[in-house]
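Handout, section 3.2

Students often ask what a structure token actually looks like in practice. Rather than define it abstractly, here is a full record for DUF1700 domain-containing protein. The first block is the sequence as you would receive it.
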Amino acid sequence: MKRREFMAELSSLLISLPLEERNEALAYYEAYFDDAGADKEEEVIRELKSPRDVAATIIQNADQGSYNTASSQEVPYNPGRGQQEGSHVNSQNNSVLKIVVLILAIIILGPVVIPVAFSIVVAIAALFFSILIASFAIAIAGVATLVLGFALLIPELVVGIAVIGIGLILLAIGIVASVASVRLCMVGIPGICRFIVNVCRMPFNRKVVA
């Protein structure tokens, strides 16, 4: 039996399958013959046994929706394999396209966007640290005012008490502001870093389409 006879008989045996599945199965085995080469057609036919065996396997597997080749020597055929491989190729092409677009965007927009983004991050960080330093300065001023108030108690009792009161107020404000500033830095700076990382990862995220 020659290849043409084998494929003709196989086509007639697969007449019960839908046209699309039958054409896909025939194309699969045509490609298998092509890959083996004309000089190995007889070897391929011996491996496949007979068109009837191959057709029976294809029809059985098509009914089951899965393919178990452990007990069969036939070349496995999986309906939809071409579409799956095509989808995989398209996915790879999309990934390559995304990388190319990202590189072009970095080259074109990098000289402008990167310095601006860096300046914004530095400005926000400087603002946080400025608030923290100002809070510490208020607390230190409160301590200094308290010392001055105690020093004024002897010569000027009323003035000393008033200064001590101001010192206590400044110290309380400084402590509260310092704690709040430290908390703000602990939350704000890591949050900014996470935001920058998420923005950089956005071009590489892919939505899975069911």
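Discussion prompt for tutorial groups: Residues 57 and 74 are 8 Å apart (CA to CA). How would you have guessed this from the sequence alone?
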